[in-house]
Amino acid sequence: MIETAFTKYHPVVNFIFFITAIVMTVVIFHPAALAVSLAASVASAVKFSGKKAVKYFFAFPFFVMILSMILNPLFVHKGLTVLFYIGESPVTVEAFAYGACTAMMVGAVIMWSYCYTQIMTSDRFMAVFGKIAPSTSLVFSMILRFLPRARRQAGKIASAQELLFVPPEEVAAEIEAGAANAADEADGQTSREQTKTTKIKKGMRVMSVLTTWALENSIDTADSMRARGYGLAGRTMYRKYRARPADIICGSLILALLAASVWAKASGVWDFYCYPEIEFGGRPVLPACILLAAMYAVPLVIEVWEDIKWTRSLSKI
Amino acid sequence: MTEAAGGKPNTKKHVRDALLAGGGIILSAAAMLWAATTNVDRGYMYASILIMLFVLVPFYVSFEKDRPYARQIVLIAVMVTIAVAGRAAFFWIPQFKPIIAVVIIAGVAMGAQAGFVVGSMSAFVSNFIFGQGPWTPFQMVAWGLIGMVAGLLFYRKMGPGAKAPAGPDADRQIGKGGLAALLIYGAVSCFIFHGAITDLWTALSLTDHPTLGVILTVYGTGLIADAVLAAATVIFLLLMARPMLKKLDRVMKKYGMLE
Amino acid sequence: MDQITVKDLNFTYPGRDRKALENVSMSIGSGEFVCLCGRTGSGKTTLLRSLKPILAPHGERTGSIRLLGKDMDELTDREAAARIGYVMQNPDNQIVTDKVWHELAFGLENIGMDPEAIRVRVAEMATFFGIHNWFGRDTDSLSGGQKQMLNLAAVMAMQPDVLLLDEPTASLDPVAAVDFLSTVSRISREIGTTIIIIEHRLDEVLPRADRVIVMDEGKIYADGMPAEVGLDLIEKEMPMGRAMPAPLRAYAGCLKEAGGDAVAADEAAGKTLKDEAIGDAPLDVAAGRRWLADAMDGEASSSGKDMTSQETGAAKPGREETEIEIKDIWMRYERNSADVLKGLSLTVKKGEILAIVGGNGAGKSTLMNVIAGAARPYRGKVVRGRRPVGALAQNPQLVFTEDTLEEDLKVASGSEEEMQEIVKKLQLEDLLASHPFDLSGGEQQRAALAKVMLAGAEVLLLDEPTKGLDEGYKEIVENMLKEFTAGGGTVIVTTHDVDFCARTAGRCAMLFDGQITGEGPAGRFFRGNAFYTTAANRMSRGITDSLFAEEIIDAVSEKRKEL
Description:
The complex is a heterotrimer.
Chain A (H helix, E strand, L loop, with lengths): L10 H17 L3 H19 L1 H9 L1 H15 L6 E5 L2 E4 H27 L2 H8 L4 H30 L4 H14 L14 H32 L17 H22 L5 E2 L5 E2 L5 H11 L1 H19 L1
Antiparallel strand pairs in A: 1-2, 3-4
Chain B lengths: L10 H27 L5 H23 L4 H20 L9 H12 L1 H19 L5 H23 L17 H31 L5 H43 L5
Chain C lengths: L1 E11 L8 E9 L3 E6 L5 H7 L9 E8 L2 E2 L5 H7 E4 L3 H4 L5 H11 L4 H14 L15 H13 L5 E5 L7 H18 L2 E5 L3 H4 L5 E6 L2 E6 L1 H10 L10 H13 L1 H9 L4 H8 L4 H11 L26 E10 L9 E9 L3 E5 L6 H9 L6 E6 L4 E4 L12 H8 L3 H10 L15 H14 L4 E5 L7 H16 L3 E5 L3 H7 L2 E6 L2 E7 H7 L6 H6 L8 H14 L1
Parallel strand pairs in C: 3-8, 3-9, 6-7, 7-8, 13-17, 13-18, 15-16, 16-17
Antiparallel strand pairs in C: 1-2, 1-4, 4-5, 9-10, 11-12, 11-14, 18-19
Helix pairs in contact in C: 4-5, 4-6, 6-7, 9-10, 10-13, 10-22, 15-17, 16-17
C-alpha cells in the first residue's frame, strides 16, 4: 500500500485509468503503441514503488515476454520472409515481429496490473464496487478481515497440538539439538524430522481444527452483523472518498484521451498486420501516438507535477 | 425464516443456476465459433475475454440480486478464507494446496451459486495477495466453474439436509460411491477447469492463431503442476470431504439454515 | 420511565427439560447501570440475549418482555437494531470488516443513514472513544483491547438507548479490561445510556454500577444496590459471595465476627445494623483502606510478624531437584527483529508451582515456548530433565480435534479410569456428549485442562489457566494443580490473575522486557509489590499487610480482642 499523488485522486478515477490503459494496450496492436504502453507502465511502476518494481519486472514479466517471443516463431510458420528452417518448418521474420508485439503487450498488461495492485488497495477497490456490488464487496472485505487471522490461527493450532504432549525422547532430542545449534541458529522454529505422510496427516488435523474454529466462530460474526441491522432495506454506503473538482477534470481528461484513441483506431491509423508480410496502415501515426502516450502518462504527470510543487513549496520555507 | 441458497436444496434456484451455467456455455460456444470464422485480428483473444464476462457477470448479478443473508455471506467468506489460508496448514509441503478441494466442498455443501462465488473469490483473493495479473479473471472463471459444477453435480445428493445413504455409511453424508465420484471429479477438475482454462487461455493470448503445437506446449508445461494439484485435491477430499461436510452441516443447522 | 420490563419470563431450550429461565421479572429504568452476575450456567446470557430481539434464543418462551415502552414483538427490526446495542465476549468474532473506519460505519450503513451524516457520526465516535489515532488501520492489526473498544464504538455509533454487554472483558488483560470498563461507565455518566453488563470482574464493575442483579439456576436471586446485595450474598454464604470485591468481603467478614456488640450499639443509636452496614460498606480499594484504617485505629502494622513465615504453600527452601534450568537465553523470532528475551535466567524446581507474571508483550508466551521446546534461543542454554512436557495454549479452542468432548478426551487419554477421574474432578460429566465448541468459554478452559492433564505429561505449562472460570471452578483447578505437584509433577503457569497466583503458586517470577526482574516465594513477592498484587494487599498495605480478605478479617478481630 502506498500513498502517492495519484492516490489523492478518487478511486473511481484510478480505476478508470487502469481499465483504460489495459484495454487500450490489448486493443491497439501496433509496435509503436505497444512500446509506449510498455514504457509508460514500467515507468509508472518504478515511480510508484521504486526498486521493487524493477525487481518484479525482471523476476516475472520479462520471462513471459521472452517466452512469447520464442514461442510464436517456433509454432507459427506463416509469413513470407523466411529466416531459417528448423527441420521442415520455416521460421519467419513476420512471426518474430508478431511475437515481439505480443511480448510487449503481455509485458505492459502485467506491469499495468502491477501498478493497479499498488494503487487499488482493498478500501479503494471497495469504493469503486461497493455501490455496484454491495454484497460481493462486503464478502471481499470480510475475507480480508478473516484471512490474516486464520493464517495465524493455523500456526497456533499446529503448535498447540504438538505441545499438548512432548514425549521425553523428543525433549531429550531437543536438548541435544539445542545444545548443538543454539549458537548459530536464530530462527526459533523447531525442525523435527518428519516423513511426508505424518506431515500431511498433521496438516489435515490442523485443517480440520481450523475449519471447525472458523465455522463455529462465524456464528458470532453473523450475529454481530444482524445485531447491527444487516439485512434491513435501504442500506447506504459510507463514502470514505469524496469527488473533488480535480477528480472530475482528471477523469474527463482520461476519457477524452480514450475517445480520441478509439477514434484513431476505428479510422485505421493504428492498422498493422504481420502476415503474410509486415504491413502498416500507411497513415502517419505520430499525432495519434502522442495522444495515446498522453493517456498512458496521466499518473506519471500527476506524480511529477506533485514533486515539482513540493520542491517549490519547500524552497519557499 | 427459510434461507434458500446455501441452505436446503431449492429446486427453483438449482434450475436457475443450471440455466445460468447453460446460457454461459452457449454464449461461450458462440464466441468461440465467431473467433474461428472471423478474420478480425486476434479473434481468439477477444473471444476469451467475452467468455470470461459471459460467465462471471451473470453469476455475480444473480448473487447480488438475491440479497444474501448475513449467514450466507459469512459462510461464503469463511469458506474462501479456509480455502486460501489452508496453505498455511501445509506450509511444510509447499506444493500441497487444498484450495481446489475446499472450493469443491463449498459447492457440494452450499450449492452451485455459492460454489461459484467461493471459487472465483478464492482466485481473486489469492491473486490479491500474490499480485493481480491478466490471468486473474481467467482463474476466477476456472475456479468458479469448479465450485459451480460441484454444486450442480453433488449438492442435492450430498448437501446438507440430503438423506444419508443406507447401510454401513448411514452416519455419513456421503457413501462410498459418492466419495469415489467426488474424488474423480476433483482430479478431473484440476486438469480440465484449472489446467485447461488457465493455461489454454494464456496460450490464446500469447499467439494469434493458436495451433495445436502451442496449446500442447503450454498445457504440457503446466501438466506436472496440474498433476500435483490433482493429487493434493484427491488426497484432501479423501481424508477431509466427509468431516468437513459434517462440520458445515452442523454449523448450518446451528444457523437455522436447514429449517 | 422503565426502559426494560420483564414479567414472569420462562424459557426452555429445545430438547431440554430444565428451564433456562424461571419466572424472571425485573424492570430497569432509563439510564441505570446494572451489573448482571451469577455462576456459569445460571442463565445470565440467555436473559441478556432475550432482550435483543434478533439474538433472542429459539425455544419455548412464556411471559412478557417490554422494551423501550413497547411489547418486544411490536418493535420494528430497525428500532431493535439501532436502539438496543449488544457487545459480545469475543472481540475478534464481532468485527465484520477489514478496516476500522468501515467497522464504525457498518451499522449506520445498515440502517440506511445518509453518507454525509455517517461521516459526521463516525468522526464523533472515533474522537469520543479515542480511536482517531488508529482510524485508518486494518482491524486485524489492533490489540484485543482496541478491538473490543472498536466493537463498543461501532455499537454506540448507532446511538442506542440500551447497551447490553455480555462479558466484554473476559478475554482482555487487566489493563485493557479496566480501560474498557471505565469507558463503559463513562458512557453511562456522560451519555446516560441504560447499561446491563454481565461481568466476572466484580472488583471493577461493582463500584461503578447502580444496581446488581444476581441470577442462580435460572432465577433472579437478588436485585438491589451493589453493597446491599453483596453483603447479603456473603452473609448467606452463597457461592457468588466469594466473587465479591475483596474490600467488601473483608468488611462483611468483620461485621459477622463482631456479631452482637455492634448490633446492640447500633440499635441504641436508632439505626438498624443493615442500614449503616450498607452505607459504610467499601466496594473499592480506596474505601476499603479508609474503613480498615478506622477499624485498626489508624495503626500501622507494627508487628509484621508473619511477613516471612506466612508463605502460602511455598516450597520450603532446601536442596530440591531442578526440573528446568534456563541460563542466560536470548531469543528473537526473525533474524532482523528485536530480541524478545534478553539474557533471561530462571530455575524451575521439581514439584513446584511457578507463576510467571508480567504485562502483555513482556515475553511470557515466548518463554513458555522455549521451555516447551517449540522455540529455540539463539544464545544461552536450556537444561531439562527427561520428563514429558505438556503445554496448554491460551486459547482452549486450539486443542480440540473431535466432534464430542468425550471422543476428544479419549484421543488424549491412556485409560478410561484416568479419564473418568479427571472428568469427575473438573465436573465435566454433563458436558461429555457436547461438541467442544458448544461449551462456554470457562467450560472450554476446563475441558482443555482435562485434555492436557490426560496426555500424561509430568511437567505442565499452562497459559492463563483460569481465564473465564468463575470462583468455584477456580478453586477446583487450584486444588487439582496442588494435587498434581504433590504427586511429583511440576507446573509453570503464566497468568494475569493475581489472586490465583497468591493462593496457588509457590513461587512467582515477574517478567519484564525479556528478563526476570523479580522472583520469590509468592507471599513475599506480592507483599513487596505496591501495584501488582492482590486487592486485599493493596487495601491493607501499611495497615495489616495481608494478602487475602480472610487475613484482614483475622487481623481485625484480633485487634478487637486486644481492645
